[in-house]
Specification:
By secondary structure, this protein is α/β, with parallel strands linked by helices. The protein has a single domain (26-210), classed as Alpha-Beta Complex (Maf protein). Helix content is 36%, strand content 23%. It contains six helices and seven strands. The chain has helices at residues 3-19, 39-49, 69-81, 108-122, 189-195, 197-210, and strands at 30-35, 53-58, 88-97, 104-105, 131-141, 150-160, 175-177. Strands 1, 2, 3, 4, 5, 6 and 7 form a seven-stranded mixed sheet that branches. Helix 5 crosses helix 6 (197-210). It is globular, with a radius of gyration of 24 Å. The N and C termini lie far apart (49 Å). 31% of the residues are buried. InterPro entries: ITPase, ITPase-like_fam, RdgB/HAM1. Belongs to the HAM1 NTPase family. Pfam families: Ham1p_like. It is found in: Cytoplasm.
Length: 213
């Protein structure tokens, strides 16, 4: 080999060894405050969003707004921003019975507290139509009151059934998603999160953030 070529090659090798591998790009992690006092909801949100999000919770007593789900979520989010300094999310969940024209809808919290899952099923005793859909609406604010509130929705259709499975999370025992023989309560958490109304809404929220990177 030409001595000149050998010297150049040696210097090039030395440079590569000294330089080492190129540094990896730092992973972006998004900080979010989820306004909720429900530990099970927080657990699901953390599991669904994964390690790209650092989710903490604040239990803030927000006003009980009335109206359409999207309007309720936006109003709750704007109120939450007054208490949380930084990016914040709030959630509004509806369980809508088709035979009742969409009721209980956003008022499911009060129906559930009075009737329980068994009572929700009994509400439909006089109707052949037991179909329903679960609707989840997440509202996000950057923390700046001048910025618009972003809304992300997820919907899962199913049937109201006699409760089955652990009664540990709301109306999960009486909601059986279409295409499954199990209620939410009977499902493995990974299965439920992949098809649930909450999982679908959070997937859209995550996609919104990842587009910004």
């Amino acid at each position: 080999m030409d001595p000149t070529v050998l010297v150049v090659a040696c210097h090039a090798y030395k440079f590569i060894v000294m330089a080492g591998p190129s540094p990896k790009k730092a992973k972006t992690v998004f900080d979010l405050v989820f306004v909720t006092g429900n530990a099970k909801k927080l657990e699901e949100v953390v599991a669904i969003l994964g390690d790209k999000f650092n989710v903490t919770s604040r239990n803030i007593d927000l006003p009980e707004f009335q109206g359409e789900p999207e309007d309720i979520s936006i109003a709750k989010c704007r109120e939450a921003v007054k208490h949380v300094k930084g990016p914040v999310i709030v959630e509004d969940t509806c369980l809508c019975f088709n035979a009742l024209g969409g009721l209980p809808g956003p008022y499911i919290k009060w129906f559930l507290s009075k009737l329980g899952p068994s009572g929700l099923h009994r509400l439909l005793t006089g109707w052949e139509d037991k179909t329903a859909y679960a609707l989840c609406t997440f509202a996000y604010s950057s923390g700046n009151l001048q910025d618009p509130v972003q809304v992300f929705k997820g919907q899962t259709h199913g049937t109201i059934v006699s409760p089955r499975g652990p009664p540990s999370f709301g109306w999960d025992p009486c909601f059986q998603p279409d295409g499954f023989t199990q209620t939410y309560a009977e499902m493995e958490s990974t299965t439920k999160n992949s098809i649930s109304h909450r999982g679908k809404a959070l997937k859209k929220l995550a996609e919104h953030f990842l587009k910004m990177t």
